[in-house]
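Bumping my old thread because nobody answered last time. Still need a sequence for this structure:
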């Protein structure tokens, strides 16, 4: 039977001309409305089969594709937040009706809570989310193409780092012991905040001096090892007495969801270190490596960056690998050497 009722709601059961079986809820309890929905779907199936037409999909279905695809990713909460924003704008609309101009005109420009302008990078993340949803829809043959939406121009990559002396002073002025350890571990390993706060003891290998960042935690979804130098090993051993599966916990041994930004910022103010954030500890670690001669390819692997381009922002901190090319092109010294040789020859002949 092509129309049946369960729990007060009608369901359809249709065979397409190609033999595919479609069973779904109509979402209504009225038989007449359910029959109309049944006939509509059956007609669309015929049109798809005989006229090579696509079944019209809604924007909400594309958002479901997005969320199902990203449910195991670290930025899932961000995807959910963005999905709610876009659904409030395009919810219920047919996918084929959404144009690049419509998306561009509806990109958020201000924070919904404090009304402050959003940074271009944040706006681009909202753009990326909706285009990802449409890209998944295209891969499922729901739409023929993904509309074009231009990116916001973002400022050049910011690299902020401090000297080892400044870092030592910063650590001395952090009032919370656990936060001090978190910051020291970041400086010693270059680990990201999420990687540090989610680190558990079963991921520490003292024998091989590594800490494992599993693929469910890694930003690019690829597992990697944090190399532990002697100072990092000593730091971890001093924390082994803590009764928790997590390496870094709060004063009350509770898992950490975030750092204490007030305590961190207070320490930077005391040290007169301006425009410095927790993530800049990772920049500092990378900068120290480059200054010590670590090749960029090696640094890319150590830091878990996906492309070499992301590491090149530190290249200017050490130009030793270029120094032996410095005399490849000269002008004045070569002319001067020729003049000196000519003068020497003239003196010898006289």
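Sorry it took so long. Here it is:
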């Amino acid at each position: 039977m092509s129309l049946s009722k369960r729990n007060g709601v009608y369901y359809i059961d249709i065979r397409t001309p190609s033999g595919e079986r479609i069973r779904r809820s109509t979402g209504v309890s009225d038989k007449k409305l359910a029959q109309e929905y049944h006939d509509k779907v059956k007609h669309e199936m015929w049109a798809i089969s005989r006229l090579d037409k696509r079944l019209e999909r809604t924007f909400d279905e594309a958002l479901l594709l997005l969320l199902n695809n990203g449910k195991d990713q670290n930025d899932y909460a961000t995807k959910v937040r963005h999905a709610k924003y876009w659904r409030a704008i395009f919810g219920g609309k047919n996918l084929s009706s959404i144009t690049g101009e419509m998306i561009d005109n509806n990109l958020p420009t201000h924070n919904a809570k404090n009304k402050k302008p959003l940074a271009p990078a944040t706006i681009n993340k909202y753009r990326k989310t909706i285009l990802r949803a449409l890209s998944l829809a295209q891969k499922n043959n729901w739409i023929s193409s993904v509309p074009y939406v231009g990116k916001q121009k973002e400022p050049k990559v910011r690299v902020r780092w401090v000297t080892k002396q400044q870092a030592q002073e910063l650590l001395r002025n952090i009032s919370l012991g656990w936060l001090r350890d978190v910051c020291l571990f970041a400086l010693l390993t270059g680990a990201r905040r999420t990687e540090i706060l989610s680190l558990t003891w079963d991921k520490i290998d003292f024998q091989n001096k590594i800490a494992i960042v599993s693929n469910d935690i890694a930003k690019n979804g690829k597992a990697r090892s944090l190399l532990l130098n002697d100072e990092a090993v000593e730091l971890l051993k001093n924390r082994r007495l803590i009764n928790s599966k997590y390496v870094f916990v709060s004063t009350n041994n509770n898992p950490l969801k975030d750092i204490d930004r007030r305590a961190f910022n207070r320490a930077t103010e005391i040290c007169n270190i301006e425009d410095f954030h927790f993530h800049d500890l990772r920049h500092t670690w990378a900068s120290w490596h480059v200054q010590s001669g670590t090749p960029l390819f090696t640094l890319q692997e150590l830091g878990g960056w996906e492309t070499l381009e992301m590491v090149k922002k530190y290249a200017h901190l050490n130009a030793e690998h270029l120094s032996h090319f410095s005399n490849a092109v000269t002008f004045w010294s070569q002319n001067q050497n020729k003049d000196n040789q000519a003068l020497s020859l003239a003196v010898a002949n006289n």
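The radius of gyration is 30 Å. Let me know if any region looks off to you.
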